[in-house]
Known about the structure:
There is one protein chain. The chain is mainly alpha-helical. The protein has four domains: about 20-145 and about 165-225, no CATH class; about 265-355, no CATH class; about 370-420, no CATH class; about 440-540, no CATH class. It has 28 helices and three strands. A three-stranded antiparallel β-sheet has the order 1-2-3. Strand 1 and strand 2 (about 400-405) form a beta hairpin. Helix 1 packs across helix 3 and helix 4 packs across helix 6.
Amino acid sequence: MEPQTQATPPTANELVAINETATEVAKRAAQIDAAPTLAEKADALWAMTQDMRHATLGQLPPTTVAALIETDPDRNLRLLGNLPAMKFQQILNLGTFAQGRTWLERAVTSGSLAAAILPSLMTSRDLSEMLLTDPDFRRALPRLLNYERAQRWRQLLTTNEWHANIDELLMSDTDELLRKANIKNKNVHAILQSLIDFVPELYLETVNYAAGRLKNAQDRPDEFEDITSTPFGMPEILQTQPDAASGLEVQPQSGAETVDSPLADLIPESGDPVFALATAGLTSARKAVLEDQLKHLLRQEIVATASFAQGAMARAAGRVLFYLRAGLESFGPSVEDATRALETRNLNEISAIGARLAESYRQKSLALAGHREWLDGRQRQFLDAMKQPEAGMHPETKEPVLWLAGKPKQDRAEWHPTPLSEIATHLSEIGAWASLARAAFGTPERTHAIFTQAKARTAGEALRRTVIALALYRRWEPELVRPNEDVAAFYRQFGKGRRNNFDAVRQTVLDALDQTPSDAWKPSDAKARARELLLRAVTELENAPPPAPPKKPAH
């Protein structure tokens, strides 16, 4: 074990400085408190530096600070941003819970981030008591946590899984739940949103404590007259026994109807038409077996992610469907092949085949990491995205895809779906381009000079410039090509109707490839793949319209 580092005690000079600062703060606080008017007190506070104002506010009586803010909120509400958390708590303790809620509303609507955090520094008990004074909060309370989703998932999870994931179940999609709760008091809505943003666990504890408090009030209304002044109704799934881990246990109702499976809307019939067609020819007994296996796969994938938000569960279902579709396609391209596989194969086995296919694409991209210095920006971004792809289904075509980031540090919601055929094409082209650039241009530095100095930002543009350089100059130097003059000269010489057509260009490119040293091409098939890239670039130039002639200058 590493030795623990002990805090260095302050030196004598530091102790003197600390004592002098504390004395100065106490002196200034006494002077401000003795000022005859609140306006003079506020002037003195605003004349201080931010650090000194923070320390002085901590020494002032809470009644003085509260009076300063309440009498002139337009000017002094910003003092909440300099207020120590302990002083804010002392102000809350001065009045009733309803008055305390007013101070919470002032903090989150003050426009100061430091003030907006103040409610998140309180206890769940104090927060719930203050929020319960608002009738909108009491009415919306049963909808502020996802009790329904928690109840539905209880039938699928084991006891250990239930207790391990109860918090995540209740907190799933809380932003959406809060928005739909339709709390008319926008300030109370802002308090709850600040808890979700800063300390989600405190939001969970606060709502759970408030729910238990209202449940007790419902059972013994004579003891809670202040709360029951406004009617409320709690959902039947709420129980009075709090769970040690989550704060509130969610129990199924005895004698109640069976709750629909939470996976009912994620089965392949609603997400993958090919899978539905493949299972159409099976017997009812076999369909039932496959349905149980599918539910098991979906449950495993969702529990493994430890997120029960609707978006996260939909992505988990997409991964499962990807693995099944990709695995089924390995048995043959037709629906009949998939049906025969489903008659005898276990879905776990089919899913494992699909998962290995997705991993094989990732491994191929990792193998190309050594060629990174020869690639353009888009190719490097593609390889970076392939380090952590997410398997799924295309939202429109329902085809297996890999979701990839289009730029560094892009949010998951902005990733784009890429079909597997395009993944294979990109990987092949990147490998071919890297081999061609190494054999033809020699060094990564020269390759990057082609991308920057010659303004050929992409490998495709560099390929087309290379074809023009070979046709005009018989040299592997795309940086020689002038975008205006040489491109126009190329089309004048090899365009349609000319004696030298694009067949001559193709032959020139092939001759140049044959003249390159054979030991410059690695691996063994690199030269053949580079030939395909260059011939495709010739075809692109042939099909592209020739550039318009430059306009003559006006006299």
